Amino acid sequence: MLFAKIVHNVTKLWNRQTLRKTLSVCLVCMTIFPLLLSMLITENKSEKILTKLAFNQNRDIAEQTAEDIDQMFSEKIKVLRIAVNTAEIKSMLPDKQNALLKAITKADADIQIAIIADSAGNQIARSDGRVVDDAITYRDREYFQRIKRIGETVVSDVIIAKSTGYPGVVIAEPIKDENQQLVGVLIVNVELRSIVDRIDQIKIGQAGYAYLVNGDGRILLHPDRGMVEQDVSWVAPVKAVMDKQTGLVEYEYKKQKKWAAFSYIPQTGWGLIVQQPVEEALADVSDVKRTTCMITVFSAVLASLIGIAVANMMTRPITDISEAAARLAKGDLDARSSVTTRDEIGQLAATFNSMADKLGTRTSALLESEEKYRSLVENISIGIYRETGDAKSFIKYANPALLKMLGYESMDELLTIPVSTTFWSQEEFTAVSELVEQEGTVKNKEIRLRRKDGTALWCSMTALKHYNHQTDTFCIDSMIEDITERKMANEKLCQAHAELERKVAERTRELTVLNRELCRISLQDGLTCVANRRYFDEFLERECQGAKREQTSIALILLDVDFFKLYNDTYGHVAGDDCLRQVATALGEGAKRGTDLVARYGGEEFAVILPDTDQAGAVKVGERILTQVRELAIRHRMSPVAEFVTVSLGIAVAIPRADLTPEKMILAADQALYQAKHLGRNQLQLAGELDSTEF
Questions:
Q1: pLDDT tens, 482-521?
Q2: Where are the alpha helices (DSSP H) in 394-483?
Q3: How far apart are CA 347 and CA 357, in angstroms?
Q4: Residue 79: closest CA among 96, 112, 104
Q5: Which of 201, 388, 447, 604 fits 564 for a cystine, CB–CB 3.0-4.6 Å?
Q6: Residue 167 contacts by C-beta under 8 Å, 6 or more apart in sequence?
Q7: How far is CA 492 from CA 485, 487, 536, 605, in A?
Q8: What is residue 124's three-state secondary structure?
């Protein structure tokens, strides 16, 4: 999206330029671009060549110097290894060893002194002929401890000699017997004067130099003596040689980019680094770039002057045609080009003059057509207007029909107010504006406009957004049709429809309430308010089918109020009805689950259906019912069983199979009830073990 916008803006800016400027720019670019390309290629190649030369120079110096140092130590170590394998040294007798030690120091000027120490670190022989000092011991020296630990040649870190002030190192070579057991150590002090001079002589440019580091990244030798012993293990080339690498690297040190060649020295475990600031190494590249740039600038200026001159010569006749076209565009229909050449530009001028002649003829026809269109717009009954497409949109033109619709007296008055004020609300104006912005058009959208007197005007709006090339802006043309009467008729129709819907809904609710009440009455016993016989039959049938599917047990309790006829005869039917209601309430408290059903079976008989209940659960519910009825303590002085009203219960429990019927289960419970009555009432009895085939 951003790239497309940039291209659009660049194209628009390019299209605004004159042909003379365009040709000048093209000719200049056609000349300058090859020059710039050539300069870039030259600079790039020269930079690569000089960079490669600088890298190779530093690398060669580092590798050669490191190789020389390694060779020097290799030769010294080789001599020491030969010496420790001689009979004189292995004898560990000072008289035999002194002569060989003197020969070693005499043969190598770098070796200052050679010493033999026994395995305990005590001196036993010296090359300088001095008397062995028993107070001197090497057992605590790092190189002595290391040679005892690894049993191989050890080269110490650089040590500054107190006598000469020059750096040196200690090379320690183990002396072993026939069993390869350590019996002593040959120790030589090697002065590094030649290595120091060699490193100090390495000068690369004004700021390039070399330095030596040990395996821990500490500086051993450096042109700046103050840098010795400093830890630079974090510097990139030092880290590389600590990993035993050899190569080249570019890195930044103290905010300055440097090139460094580094080489690992195997014999000592040291590393040599040769480094130079990148800026200094590329100084020759900068000189080449500067020279190339000056040549390129001079050539570009000369090419630009020539290109501009050629462009002026080529565009002069085109400018004549352009000026004639400009006069014609301003309304001068007599404007003609004076170019008469026979080339393509001359043909263009002739074509332009012919076009100008035809334009005069067509202008007259266009004026006539415009007059007809204006007459149509001015006299049509639909409101038409054009508005600006900016944030604060104003009406630029409106026909008389719109003026009349909105109730304004003059056109000037309408043209001075924002379009948003003609809408009934800001929300409607915003909705229409967003739709036009997104879709570019609106068709037959119903809106409300605000008349001058503040009343609402219902309208159907059609609008189209288009680009005005003359003003380089967007504008919106709209048509407004007054639909107030149609809208009012629709509103009345909608109100009537809504009222009808309301009445239908109200009548439906009343019927629903009546149906629910009717259903409740049809399934409930009017006296006791528990389920009636009809609902009992439906519920038992449904639960038996469910028990068959799930293979769960179901229990049925039939109960009868003991000697209820005597109660009625004694206390009257009103008291009898009240007694039945209290018993029904007690049954509901005995069967507490929401899935259980208490129903009036008939007269003083009741039934309780217990889904998903085994024999123990049914007995528990039955005993709870007996207790609840007894606790009612309803006086019954004529009862032979007790002073209060009691009940007798018959219980049938089974896991039904396919041949189970509700009638068979009722029969089993009724037989158990008969048994309870026969045994003296005020008790419960279970039906015997029921084989499912009996159902």
A1: 888 787 888 888 888 888 888 887 787 777 666 666 666 6
A2: 400-406, 411-415, 426-439
A3: 16
A4: 104
A5: 604
A6: 158, 159, 160, 161, 191, 192, 196, 220, 221, 228
A7: 11, 9, 54, 63
A8: strand
User: Which of 95-99, 343-347, 475-479, 573-577 is predicted most confidently?
Assistant: 573-577
| Burial grade of 676 (CB within 10 A; 0-12, 13-18, 19 or more) | buried
Could you please report the per-residue DSSP string of 243-310?
TT--EEEEEEETTEEEEEEEEEETTTTEEEEEEEEHHHHTHHHHHHHHHHHHHHHHHHHHHHHHHHHH
Task: Map residue 431 onto helix, strand or coil.
Answer: helix
Q: Exposed (0-12), middle (13-18) or buried (19+): which is 96, by Cβ within 10 Å?
A: middle
Is there a catalytic annotation at residue 604? Answer: yes
Encoded amino acid at 120, one letter: A
| pLDDT score for 695 | 42
Does residue 152 contact residue 174 with C-beta atoms inside 8 Å? yes
For residue range 411-430, what is the model confidence (pLDDT) as tens digits? 777 777 887 788 888 888 88
Q: 153 near 173, Cβ under 8 Å?
A: yes
The predicted structure's pLDDT at residue 694 = 43
C-alpha dihedral (222, 226, 230, 233), degrees to nearest 10: -40
d(CA 246, CA 59): 9
Counted residue by residue, the chain has a size of: 695
**Mean pLDDT in the chain?**
82
What is the Cα–Cα distance from 488 to 458, expressed in whole angstroms? 9
Contacts of 314 (CB under 8 A, 6+ apart): 23
Residues 387/476, Cβ–Cβ less than 8 Å: yes
Predicted TM-score (pTM) of the model is 0.39
Residues whose CB falls within 8 Å of the CB of residue 423, separated by 6 or more in sequence, listed in order: 429, 432, 447, 448, 449, 450
- Alpha helix ranges (H) inside 135-179: 142-150
Q: Which of 604, 623, 631, 663 is catalytic?
A: 604
One DSSP character per residue, 615-650 reads HHHHHHHHHHHHHHHHHH--B-TT-SS-SB--EEEE
Residues 451 and 482: their CA atoms lie apart, in Å, by: 12
Q: Phi/psi at 420 (nearest 5 deg)?
A: -60, -30
Close Cβ partners of 312 (under 8 Å, ≥ 6 residues apart): 20, 24
Cα–Cα distance measured from residue 277 to residue 403, given in angstroms and rounded to the nearest whole number:
83
- Exposure string for 73-88, b = 16+ CB within 10 A, e = fewer: beebbebbeebbeeeb
Pairwise CA distance, residues 340 & 357, whole Å: 17
Cα 535–Cα 538–Cα 543 angle in degrees, nearest 5: 120
- The strands making up 456-468's β-sheet, listed across from edge to edge, are 395-398, 383-388, 473-482, 456-468, 441-450
Instruction: Give the integer Cα–Cα distance in Å for 523 and 534.
Output: 6
As a whole number of Å, the CA-based R_g of the chain is 60
